[in-house]
Amino acid sequence: MDTTTESGTRAEPVRLDPFGRDQHGENARLREAGPAVLVELPGGVVVWAVTHHDTLQSLLSDPRVGKDARLWTTFREGRLPEGWPLLNFIVVPGMVTADGEDHRRLRGLVSQAFTPRRIADLAPAVEARTVALLDGVAKLEGEFDLRRHFAYPLPMQVIGELLGLGLAEQDELHELSDTMVSSSATPAAALAAQRGLNALLASVVAAKRAEPGDDLTTDLIAVHEEGDRLSEAELVGTLLLMLVAGHETTLNLITNAVRALLAHPDQLRLVLDGEQPWSAVVEETLRYDSPVGQFPLRYASEDITVGDVVIRRGEALLASYAAAGRDSGHHPDADRFDLTRQPAKHLSLGHGPHFCLGSGLARMEAETALRHLFTRFPGLALAEGRTDEPIASFVSNSVRTLWVTV
């Protein structure tokens, strides 16, 4: 790989911590090094991390940057190590790995499930699920893990109902998807998760073919079988994308928002007193502590100059959402959690043709969850003496547990 700058100086890649133990500290060092920095991923794979807000926003909508892994020289030449933990992100057939007409076709099929009207119709069910989960939380004594008992089941139940998944399937799929988004998974674990997800979702498809339901999986099967616009691999890949994106990111968003509010009681008071809306909490959390740290991957279809470096044709890029969110060049006083920030623009839900299709649903779920949680438990506090460890990944940005007391 050619890793020279325009001036001819060879850049030494920075090795990303696959366990994500200090993402914000690592991101600060990357931003200091420049808007695009060579980094080393697990397996010795070298790509560019794009860490500055303006640069990332530009590249996310740049027609010279694609999502088809066949653009990536390392992948095309078969140089990825076996069981590479991030492989699922780049090879699963679906709109997240497609460009051009394929992407528009796949996105158009799924977008029908996420229209503003469909999301508004879901709001009462989300409210009811939130209240029911908090009724369960109220019965817990002493300290409890808010992530496990509230932040996880809410988005998982919502996306599970949309896809027509049973509760047992939801829990199994969550465990497998946790491994999928982990940059620290062993090759054996990564391969097992990939096979397990594909097998389980294929069985869901088979069950829905035998007994169709009022759900998105049944609708996508009908599109596949009647219009031949969705291949079998794309069908399973689309379900996988919706499952992971539909609960993992919202789970992290709710968790990170609660952590931020409890660590900043002055900001919590602003929403409890009605001076700021709950939507401001969601948007500022997305900027301040993005649910996604480094998202793999995009690829340069031709040479692209960024600052004083050149991203060569066939090289890969990470979208460094968490880093861009704290870019002081775009966000004044970027390390401060501030609900009065205007405007609280961020890139954490993407930008350009691959902007998050479920962003409206994620925002609605998070606002509903936070409003009900803090209205029901205004005295909620972080549990003393507990250390909430980061998720062992630089893709996900959150903590494995969030111990609180009421």
From TrEMBL:
<keyword id="KW-0503">Monooxygenase</keyword>
<protein>
    <submittedName>
        <fullName>Cytochrome P450</fullName>
    </submittedName>
</protein>
<keyword id="KW-0560">Oxidoreductase</keyword>
<comment type="similarity">
    <text>Belongs to the cytochrome P450 family.</text>
</comment>
<dbReference type="GO" id="GO:0004497">
    <property type="term" value="F:monooxygenase activity"/>
</dbReference>
<dbReference type="Pfam" id="PF00067">
    <property type="entry name" value="p450"/>
</dbReference>
<dbReference type="InterPro" id="IPR036396">
    <property type="entry name" value="Cyt_P450_sf"/>
</dbReference>
<dbReference type="GO" id="GO:0016705">
    <property type="term" value="F:oxidoreductase activity, acting on paired donors, with incorporation or reduction of molecular oxygen"/>
</dbReference>
<dbReference type="InterPro" id="IPR001128">
    <property type="entry name" value="Cyt_P450"/>
</dbReference>
<dbReference type="GO" id="GO:0020037">
    <property type="term" value="F:heme binding"/>
</dbReference>
<dbReference type="InterPro" id="IPR002397">
    <property type="entry name" value="Cyt_P450_B"/>
</dbReference>
<keyword id="KW-0408">Iron</keyword>
<keyword id="KW-0349">Heme</keyword>
<feature type="region of interest" description="Disordered">
    <location>
        <begin position="1"/>
        <end position="22"/>
    </location>
</feature>
<dbReference type="GO" id="GO:0005506">
    <property type="term" value="F:iron ion binding"/>
</dbReference>
<feature type="compositionally biased region" description="Basic and acidic residues">
    <location>
        <begin position="12"/>
        <end position="22"/>
    </location>
</feature>
<keyword id="KW-0479">Metal-binding</keyword>
